Amino acid sequence: MADIKTFYLPDLGEGLPDATVVEWHVKVGDTIKLDAPLCSMETAKAVVDVPSPYTGKVVKLHGAAGDIVETGAALADFEPDPNAKQRAESQETGHHHGPKKSVGSPAPDDGGKVVASDEGGEVESNGKADREDEGTVVGAMVSGSHVHVEQAASIGGVKAVPAVRALAKKLKVDLTRVRPSGADGVVTMKDVKDAAANGSAALGAAPARAVPASAGRHLAPELPQPEPQRGPVSLAGKPVRTTSPSQQASGQPEQLKGVRRNMARVMADAHAQVVPTTLVDDADLHAWIGKQDITARLIRAIVFACKTVPALNAWFDGKNLTRTLHPQVDIGIAVDTDDGLFVPALRNADVLDAAGVRAAIKRLRSQVEDRTIPASELSGYTISLSNFGMFAGRYATPVVVPPTVAIVGAGKLSHDVVAVIGGIEVHRRMPLSLTFDHRAATGGEAARFLKAMLDDLAMPH
């Protein structure tokens, strides 16, 4: 009987309890070599290739494209080639090839091997948790010390990183027809987007289903049935019902994946842990001289307020009731995408000028859009900013994600009528919303922080 080995989904360096299958690079019955790309998996940060742990034949694939696989669950079964050199089970690879263990279960001395847990994100190493927080998309997550680096793998004659392959699949672009512009013939994100825009590499229509020769007749393709027309009266000419159907609902449930799945977890945790309070006010921009970079001014105002009231530029540990004040100002910039919310860190905002702020934000947004942003850029910020006003809305109650203490929300600019000595004037104003964790900061500290922002934004330049 052949020796069948089961490969369990390793911790992909994200510390998340699961990942989503984007694409299998093999099928059952294929022969694969050690470390060749097995499949692409989407996590909360990126799309990464999972390499094969064996040289041999693929016997079974656990899950199809789009399925969510838990960390530590079976991913694929292999029949290793007895004549090929295999990696020793004890050899360090950044993977754990055994089934997951629950936290608290005794762990053998395995030389520091990382073991995924049933709880998701918790690990053991010689019976002790020893991993540190290395960041996330929104909030703090535990992650492994071995991280998969996206590399351009040649699959089907096309060189591209997993994120590019995932984008091509999403945009229905045939990678084999895309002209690469990257070094060494690598297809880039821009290549895929350009191909999607000009339609030069659209996927062909799905082939017609094969019909057995013995059928003796032509089968017409199934056409989608038109949805019933809705109107104020029924087919019988009577008014339609005004109550909702009791059982049937419109649409289908959609499983959250990747970034959105992690966002849901982080926001729920923040809601359970933080004691939020929100203050709102309007910054008067009437004194501004000439055209100015609004985002840069907003960043500068936050930095000024952090220096004036350090209590809000801090981390708070609710379990141990400890507070860490930060000498530097690293601002988490909320970036909204179709996949979910990313919060990259604008490092050392307190030493950047307006041009430096603009260049850094442009770089971070570009990396987020391309899903090439390093994990280190998605953690460690000391305070957050949500500039939702670029879309709509005046005031909000932004969510404080631990361990940070505060988040600033900037609303949509407006021209308001304000009272001045001797009459009224129309001033341009920016609505500000400051949400803070009341366990770590007082109302007075929050009010003084907001006042410092208002004062800085009121300056002519």
Automatic annotation (TrEMBL):
Residue stretches making up the Peripheral subunit-binding (PSBD) domain: 159-196
Cofactor: (R)-lipoate
Signal sequence interval, chain numbering: none
Cited Gene3D superfamilies: 2.40.50.100, Chloramphenicol acetyltransferase-like domain, E3-binding domain
Region (Disordered), start-end ranges: 76-134, 213-255
GO molecular function terms listed in the Swiss-Prot or TrEMBL record: acyltransferase activity
Basic and acidic residues bias (residue ranges): 82-95
Known partners and oligomeric status: Forms a 24-polypeptide structural core with octahedral symmetry.
Origin species: Rhodanobacter umsongensis
PANTHER family: DIHYDROLIPOAMIDE ACETYLTRANSFERASE COMPONENT OF PYRUVATE DEHYDROGENASE COMPLEX
Family to which this protein belongs: Belongs to the 2-oxoacid dehydrogenase family.
Residue ranges of domain Lipoyl-binding in the record: 4-79
Protein name: Dihydrolipoamide acetyltransferase component of pyruvate dehydrogenase complex
Keywords, comma-separated and alphabetical: Acyltransferase, Lipoyl, Transferase
SUPFAM superfamilies linked to this entry: CoA-dependent acyltransferases, Peripheral subunit-binding domain of 2-oxo acid dehydrogenase complex, Single hybrid motif
EC number(s) recorded for this UniProt protein: 2.3.1.-
Bias kind Polar residues: ranges: 241-253
CDD domains: lipoyl_domain
